[in-house]
Write a structure and sequence with these properties.
The complex is a heterodimer of chains A (481) and B (120). Chain A has two domains: 1-10 and 26-213, Growth Hormone, Chain: A (Up-down Bundle), CATH 1.20.1250; 264-481, Growth Hormone, Chain: A (Up-down Bundle), CATH 1.20.1250. Chain A is 79% helix and 0% strand. Chain A has helices at residues 27-39, 41-51, 53-64, 68-96, 98-117, 122-150, 156-185, 191-197, 200-211, 217-222, 226-236, 239-259, 270-288, 291-305, 309-315, 317-333, 339-363, 368-387, 389-399, 406-458, 467-478. The longest helix of chain A is centred in the C-terminal third of the chain and has 53 residues, at 406-458. Chain B has one domain (2-115): Rossmann fold (3-Layer(aba) Sandwich), CATH 3.40.50. In chain B, 35% of the residues lie in helices and 23% in strands. Chain B is built from four helices and five strands. Chain B has a five-stranded parallel β-sheet with strand order 3-2-1-4-5. In chain B, strand 1 (2-7), helix 1 and strand 2 (30-35) form a beta-alpha-beta unit. The relative contact order of chain B is 0.23. The model of chain B has no long low-confidence stretch (mean pLDDT 89). The chains are: A mainly alpha (481), B alpha/beta (120). The A-B interface holds A 257-258, 260-269, 272, 402-405, 408, 468, 471, 475, 479-481 and B 8-11, 37-39, 57-60, 62-65, 93, 97-98, 100.
């Protein structure tokens, strides 16, 4: 999972076993492939738009004469927009349907991108980034749901994973494209506008592509439009499978409706409140690992450690590569290791690498040697974070809540997560300027230790437990008697 | 004639259910069990020896437990009594969350019987 990529991961999977005929071969499978490719442009855009400031920020900052604080605001405004986009995107997708929502989001991506590219002043850019953030957050909430709902149950996981990979891939693509543009065309004025403009291509591809994609069958069923749902299923399944799947989809649509049952008053139940606080803590600390300070400010960090801008922007690509490698490892580890072990190991490694970065800034004199040492520890941090805490936080959020309060509880946690993302983005540049690298990364190390203690004390184990069993145990331990 | 009970996920909720069962047995009526917890009641959680209708909370329309109960009472005209569990709440608790019991007492179309545990 990408550094700060709130999404609504759980589209219920069938708890009842439906014996279904094979998905089919040939046309329906091909059609599904096209749908997945088009929809994951949403993930790609998410990654590109969050990653592009890493590299675009320096020329942009020169152009507009930004201070450390206003640099932070340019970056963070997108995350604030995303917090709202993530929370309300799901609601819109339930009301309008997945397809229309994604189409609208593609439109917002296009408008937001154009607004950023043509921004006459910093204040305008900040506003345009907020709008772009709405689309980023909305895509994070809608695209995985759409993919999960249109994919056949046995392939659901792999389709959603594909979106995750596209998000991290989008960030890496932004790093590479920035490095290429900056090194070949760095002499051109306002080169950052071109870096941002690149995002227009996938946004248009998403808009045009989505026009030809069908609505989610599960959403159609939830609206009582069973005939249309069957028509869609017939496009993406063999005819026998399509008929057989209607029952499963109807069951799942009913389960989805249940997820919206619980709300604020249920937080009066002590064990439920405890779970929501744990979930919010997971989002809170995931962002305070500082993963996104690397994803947004990696190039600047390397510059301030002593590299030339042209070299720093290339060195920063390593962060993207290790992020992608980490997430790949993380996805594999998720099903092998107990959650608590993985979380605690992750936060311990994060604390160690942050400490090493902090020490490097003291021990190694500024210059290329310091910068390369910092980069080595940075990528190790990124790799350990993305291999553990990154994807695990999302998995955990999708499985700790009782089904009937999942929608509300996830909404709170995802909102906390994006807002912490924004706070880190906002205050990282001024912190580095005021306190230096040692104090800033020393602080991240300290926060990782606090996260370690918090999780060691509070986090329940959920691996290999079904939800009902987990709930019973947790309630027995923490409920009022 | 019938007795309704709102069962929350708490000791008061369990006490309310016990009292409502006793009440229904005394009156020789059925029981409308409105389950306000976050899990659906299974067979073995339903009190035996009575005619019980279980209503589980489900969907966004039931997000507010008070609305969920009032809607059920409106749909079941045969109900002439609502049993509720109540407890004293801390000042902080009152500041943060409203009281479901208080709102139900004020809005219920039928008389409300409240029960609380001894010494609480």
């Amino acid at each position: 999972m990408p550094p700060g990529s709130p999404r609504r991961p759980s589209t219920s999977t069938a708890s009842t076993n439906f014996e279904l005929p094979h998905v089919g071969t040939g046309r329906p499978v091909h059609r599904l492939g096209v749908i997945a490719t088009v929809a994951t442009f949403g993930g790609l855009l998410f990654g590109y738009d969050t990653g592009v400031v890493n590299g675009a920020l320096e020329p942009l900052s020169e152009d507009f004469g930004l201070t450390a604080l206003s640099e932070g605001l340019v970056v963070a405004s997108l995350m604030v927009g995303a917090a709202f986009g993530a929370v309300f995107g799901g609601r819109v997708a339930d009301a309008w349907g997945r397809r229309k929502t994604i189409l609208a989001l593609a439109g917002v991506f296009i408008l937001g991108t154009l607004g950023c590219v043509l921004a006459p002043a910093a204040a305008f850019l900040i506003g345009a980034r907020f709008v772009l953030g709405l689309a980023v957050g909305g895509a994070s909430a809608t695209v995985p749901v759409y993919l999960g709902e249109i994919a056949p149950s046995e392939k659901r996981g792999s389709y959603v994973t594909r979106n995750e990979v596209m998000i991290v891939g989008g960030q890496l693509a932004a790093f590479i494209i920035n490095a290429a543009i900056f090194n070949f065309f760095g002499h051109i004025d306002s080169i950052w506008r071109w870096m941002l403009l690149v995002a227009l291509a996938p946004a248009i591809a998403l808009l045009v592509g989505m026009i030809f994609q069908p609505e989610s069958p599960r959403w159609l069923i939830s609206q009582g439009r069973a005939e249309e749902a069957l028509a869609v299923l017939k496009q993406v399944r063999s005819p026998e499978r399509a008929e057989a799947e209607i029952a499963e989809v109807t069951h799942l649509a009913a389960e989805d409706a249940k997820e919206a049952t619980g709300g604020l008053s249920d937080l009066g139940t002590r064990w439920v409140l405890r779970l929501v606080l744990i979930g919010a803590g997971l989002g809170f600390f995931q962002q305070l690992t500082g993963i996104n300070s690397v994803m947004y400010y990696g190039t600047q960090l390397l510059t301030s450690a002593g590299l030339d801008s042209g070299v720093a922007i290339i060195g920063n690509i390593a962060n993207g590569v290790f992020s992608l490698a980490g997430i790949t490892l993380g996805m594999y580890l998720l099903n092998k290791q107990p959650r608590r072990v993985m979380f605690l190991t992750g936060y311990a490694l994060i604390a160690v690498f942050h400490t090493l970065i902090a020490l490097t800034a003291v021990i190694v004199p500024p210059g290329p040697a310091q910068a390369w040492t910092v980069l080595a520890f940075l990528v190790l941090f990124v790799f350990s974070m993305q291999g553990t805490v990154g994807p695990l936080t999302w998995l955990m959020l999708s499985e700790i809540f009782p089904m009937k309060i999942r929608s509300f509880a996830m909404g709170i946690c995802v909102f906390v997560l994006w807002i912490m993302n924004a706070i880190v983005a906002q205050f990282f540049p001024p912190l580095i300027e005021a306190l230096g690298m040692t104090a800033t990364f020393g602080m991240f190390a300290g926060l990782a230790v606090i996260a370690f203690v918090f999780l060691a004390l509070m986090l329940p184990e959920t691996k290999d437990k079904d939800l009902a069993e987990f709930e019973r145990e947790f309630k027995a331990e923490y409920g009022r008697r | 004639m019938s007795v309704a009970v709102a069962v929350t996920d708490s000791p008061e909720g369990r006490l309310a259910l016990e009292s409502a069962v006793a009440e229904a047995q005394n009156l020789g009526t059925g029981l409308l069990l409105i389950n306000l917890t976050l899990h659906d009641f299974t067979e073995d959680e339903v009190p035996p020896g009575l005619e019980v209708t279980v209503i589980n909370r489900s969907g966004r329309g039931d997000r507010d437990p008070v609305t969920a109960v009032i809607d059920e009472l409106d749909d079941h005209a045969e109900v002439d009594r609502l049993v509720l569990g109540v407890r004293a709440r801390s000042r902080v608790g009152k500041m943060i969350l409203g009281s479901v019991a208080q709102r139900l007492i004020l809005r219920s179309p039928v008389p409300v019987l409240t029960v609380r545990q001894d010494g609480r």
